[in-house]
Write a structure and sequence with these properties.
This protein has 224 residues and is of the alpha/beta class. It has 2 domains: 2-80 and 139-220, Phosphoglycerate mutase-like (Rossmann fold, 3-Layer(aba) Sandwich), CATH 3.40.50.1240; 82-129, no CATH class. It has helices at residues 24-39, 53-63, 83-93, 105-120, 132-147, 161-172, 176-185; strands at residues 2-8, 46-49, 73-74, 154-159, 191-196, 201-208. Helix 1 packs across helix 2 (53-63), helix 3 (83-93) packs across helix 4 (105-120) and helix 6 packs across helix 7. The longest helix is centred in the N-terminal third of the chain and has 16 residues, at 24-39.
Length: 224
């Protein structure tokens, strides 16, 4: 069977004007993941990366210590939805809801969860360029394109928490509420491992951070 290693990007710049850039810690997380793969002499036959800066920066960090194929496939279908736009749309519809500060991680995640459920129920009055159904469809299409071709491949995929949760939904058949829960708990540079063939896909690990879950790096386990 083939293997897919789905990796979420490193810590981005939550609270900054441009979220779509890795933080200093995000760069370190990415390099540590590359070191982890290199120590295990991992060889990838194919690399697929989303179209956002944080995706490419994460892959660049992995590649600092891990030899990868020279050609990488870029697929914008693996891009995250506009989560800041989603939060703003929710706050516009709910003016009594406290507006979280740029560094209020707990407040941002709490608002994000409410906004996701409102988006899923199509309760937002406007402000989103993409529907949740449309987001799910484009990610599912990108995932199917990864599965196409020779099944005996080891593929590295770097994307975001939203696409990863949708791919898990596609494989395991659970509902939107579970998908939202998985996205919210997704860790930066977490590894999600799949076996696949033309007929089926098996999930063997989810949200795994062995390169961070060790003494001296526990504070580097992040979700943003």
């Amino acid at each position: 069977m083939g293997e897919i290693y789905l990796v979420r990007h490193g810590q981005a710049s939550l609270g900054a004007e441009n979220y779509d850039q890795l933080s200093e810690l995000g760069h370190r997380q990415s390099r540590w993941l590359g070191e982890y793969f290199a120590e295990r002499e991992m060889v990838f036959d194919e690399v697929v990366v989303g179209g956002q800066h944080r995706h490419r920066q994460t892959l660049d960090g992995i590649a600092e210590t891990l030899p990868l194929p020279q050609e990488w496939q870029r697929d914008p279908g693996l891009n995250e939805f506009a989560f800041q736009q989603l939060i703003q749309a929710y706050l516009a519809d709910n003016p009594a809801h406290p507006v979280p500060g740029p560094r209020d991680v707990k407040g941002i995640f709490s608002t994000f969860r409410l906004a996701m459920h409102a988006w899923a129920k199509e309760e937002l009055s406007g402000g989103m360029d993409e529907s949740l159904a449309g987001f799910c469809d484009r990610v599912a299409a990108a995932y199917r394109s990864i599965l196409a071709g020779d099944a005996k491949r080891r593929v590295l995929v770097v994307t975001s928490g939203g696409p990863i949760s949708i791919i898990m939904k596609e494989i395991m058949g659970f509902g939107i509420d579970t998908m939202i829960g998985l996205q919210i708990q997704s860790k930066n540079t977490a590894v999600n491992h799949l076996y696949f063939n033309p007929d089926t896909t098996y999930v063997t690990s989810f949200n795994h951070v062995p390169h961070l879950d060790q003494p001296g790096r526990l504070d580097a386990i992040t979700n943003a």
